[in-house]
Fold Two component, sigma54 specific, transcriptional regulator, Fis family.
Amino acid sequence: MPATVLVVDDERNIQLTLSRALSMEGYAVETASGGREALEKIAALPVDVVVMDVRMPDLDGLAVLQRARETRPELPIVIMSGHGSIDTVRSAFKLGAFDYLEKPITEKEKLLVAVKNALALESLRAENAALRRAAGQGQLEMIGGGPAMQRLFDLVRRTAPSEGRVLITGENGTGKELVARAIHEQSRRRDRPFVKLNCAAVPAELIESELFGHERGAFTGAVAARRGRFEQADGGTLFLDEVGDMPAAMQAKVLRVLQEGELERVGGQQTLRCDVRVVAATNKDLQAEVAAGRFREDLYYRLNVVPIHTPALRDHKEDVPELAARFLAEACERNGRRAMRLGRDAVAALQTHDWPGNVRELRNLVERLAILCDGPEIGAEDVVAMLPGARRPRGDRLRAGAAFHELVEEAEREIVLAALEAHQDNVSDTARALGLERSHLYKKMRALGIKRGAE
Ligand SMILES: Nc1ncnc2c1ncn2[C@@H]1O[C@H](COP(=O)(O)OP(=O)(O)OP(=O)(O)O)[C@@H](O)[C@H]1O
Ligand SMILES: [Mg+2]
């Protein structure tokens, strides 16, 4: 696809000359005759580079530059200006212009070089971002230093290298998909495909073709042959997500492949063998689904060779500080904000919440905090304002329905945090003041997810 250049100038003939020169080089060209139109096109079209006059009647180039920075910070903008007013040029660069061309543009070479450089920079940036993302995904780093998550990681480590089918159960947002990917990444199949199929989202009439593929002309609309998910995953892992919502017709078909290891494409004559490891996940109680007659028992036993359960976040609140800190750092980077941190009270407030949406809910909340809070430190009041379920620490904690051990844990957390604060995070002094062994205090802090303190 050719790159798109937006040419902005209020003079029609300049627009035309520049457009022609760029088109002849193979670029797709869009034009705008003023600042407002330019902003609209930048917002609406896949513009890759902008070449723009500074002096325009409605909204001048510098203003456009400034606003475009806010919506498309990475978009390279080349500014053109008449009489080399050094101040204008300086302001333009300060506002992030990529390059500057002096008008009239008599040599079209200069224009082409500026555009080419701008595109090179842009593609380098995109490549970098993609690499960073890939590295982030490749690590598949699940967070969780607490005992519940450590048990989970240990189970994943032991299960992954085997060929055993895995059934992952857990509430929404507890990381089931991350576990499935981690199993694949740690298995011998890691260099082969990981294919995901959401069993709840396949239209009834497409089940067979989705699973097994079809030959060309197998049914109306089958204009080309297509490989099904089992075939796509050959040699690798097939992740059957939301398996508890698999329609009965699909259950029968999946069972057959799992039993026989063979399949035929829809409309195909040939029997294909496939070597696929199936990892399934559900937030439903599959055994109850079996009892209710909604899920085939024979399929359940075939899928559930190794059961893995992802714990609810309320059962490992000790990991909240680390999760929140990581999500905050990521959110700041993604939204182009300066690094922020969570205040001690803010973390404690996060730990008073029960997180029915689990890690996903925490991640979304932290992203909101990163976008909406100003200042480098997020406080407890920011958390409470955005999370009605959370309470400020040190408030009235005797809420109805809280289990005794939860209240004790909360009280302990507050006592330890307050004591640390009073002793400038010096653990030895804090332990002495509380009448505890230093090692005991350390253990307590770890259990409560408190990470601070100097010797
Ligand atoms: N231990 C963890 N460390 C880091 N991120 C996590 C962890 N657990 C979950 N997440 C993040 O939380 C979000 C939800 O995770 P995931 O999609 O794996 O959950 P799920 O159990 O499949 O949820 P659902 O049942 O709603 O599909 C994702 O953004 C994921 O990256
Ligand atoms: Mg999921």
